[in-house]
Amino acid sequence: IRRVDPEDWPLVKAVRLEALADAPYAFGETLAEARKKDDAHWQERTRRNALDPASTCALAFDNAVPVGMIGGYLEPEDPARARMVAVWVASSCRGRGVAEALLAFIIRWACGAGARMITSHVTEQNPRAIAFYQKEGFEFLSTRRPWAPDPTKLEIPIQLVLDGPAAGGER
Q1: Is the overall model pTM greater than 0.90, yes or no?
Q2: How far is CA 159 from the centre of its chain?
Q3: Strand residue runs (E) in 90-144
Q4: Nearest of 110, 12, 1 to residue 54 by alpha carbon
Q5: Cβ–Cβ contacts within 10 Å for residue 35, how many?
Q6: Which residue of 40, 58, 125, 158 pairs with 138 in a disulfide if CB–CB is 3.0 to 4.6 A?
Q7: How confident is the model at residue 164 (pLDDT cuts 50, 70, 90)?
Q8: Pairwise CA distance, residues 71 & 164, whole Å
């Protein structure tokens, strides 16, 4: 697991497109929308996540092959809250600890950035992710909101408080 460098933009683009193709039920962006974005978009997105202390993106590798990703950013209106986004693990690597390692990365980053809580959303049609976040100690909030790609489906807000034993990635 490592934070992206600015020159990693082709990898970030490829992994994001693979994630959207593999798990369209898990993201607020569609594969068609992502494919419309030009290389300048991917370069800027990767540069920002590599260099801006208020955002991050990490890739997981199996040997030299990227097999997962995670992103995060500090909420502009409340930098004590870090938003976790773009979590994905290749189907061939699920159940092998990659998701746990990605989560540990984002927890370390969030704590280092001064966040006290990680927030995110999980779609109701993603039971594997729901089980993972429950196992990892996330609180599932009672409010639901329509999922952007298909408002007939809902997403569940989740949060993880970082002031306990998990702070600093000690899980």
Answers
A1: yes
A2: 13
A3: 117-123, 139-140
A4: 110
A5: 11
A6: 158
A7: low
A8: 22
